[in-house]
UniProtKB/TrEMBL annotation:
UniProt family annotation: Belongs to the cytidylate kinase family. Type 1 subfamily.
EC numbers for this chain: 2.7.4.25
Protein name listed in UniProt: Cytidylate kinase
Regions crossing the membrane: none
Gene Ontology annotations for the cellular component aspect, listed alphabetically: cytosol
GO BP, sorted A to Z: nucleobase-containing small molecule interconversion; pyrimidine nucleotide metabolic process
Binding-site positions, ATP: 10-18
Subcellular localization: Cytoplasm
Catalytic reaction equation(s): dCMP + ATP = dCDP + ADP; CMP + ATP = CDP + ADP
Residue ranges occupied by any Cytidylate kinase domain in the UniProt entry: 6-212
GO molecular function: ATP binding; CMP kinase activity; dCMP kinase activity
Record-linked InterPro entries: Cytidylate_kin, Cytidylate_kinase_dom, P-loop_NTPase
Organism whose genome encodes this protein: Sutterella megalosphaeroides
Stretches for region Disordered: 174-195
Amino acid sequence: TTIPVITLDGPAASGKGTIAERVGSALGFHYLDSGALYRIATLAALDAGVALDDEAALAELCRGLSPVFAEGRILVAGEDVTERIRSEEVSRATSRVAALPAVRRALFELQRRAARTPGLVADGRDMGTVVFPEARLKVFMTASARVRAERRFKQLAARGVAADLDELTRDLEERDRRDRERATAPLRPADDAHVLDTSEMNVEEVVKKVLDWWSDAS
Ligand code: C5P
């Protein structure tokens, strides 16, 4: 039997994570934050002093990772890295590391294994196109760069982190450009994805839309 999978792809700070968690808990499904895996790999590389263009060494490092996701925290080799992987430094470096094909291959199985009963909600860039092409529902979320930067700005402010809105907007656009233009698994909607512009929508509206599509699809 095939495991029910919902994929949520889209650019940085488009709200995928929030929506994926909400949809996942509404349906009692598991949740895969694939971006966290690329972030974890990148942080491990930075910590170990591995050069961010040493593809073979990075892939080897990825194969050795066994992150633990528990109660909203992320542990790597016993260390809680939940906050560290979200820093702007790690965000920027991650989009470089994630462009390397050997890194993507090394993390592929780890992602596939997340599909377990009763089902999975997976968020990222290539969930619908590469990792779970068989998914029963695929959603591609967009929002203008400014709206996304404002959302990120508020998230940071809520954590007491000061940020510059123009700089955040530039960083997001730079990251999106790299994710979209890379040769391997570029950011794009799957042919059979529903595209949803969330610029004018709140979280409840987006969750409802996805759950409606899910009941139509299953
Ligand atoms: O989703 P998040 O912003 O945490 O992802 C961080 C980075 O990881 C992205 O900018 C992208 O370069 C990479 N990524 C990816 N494929 C995924 C998820 C994330 O390349 N499925």
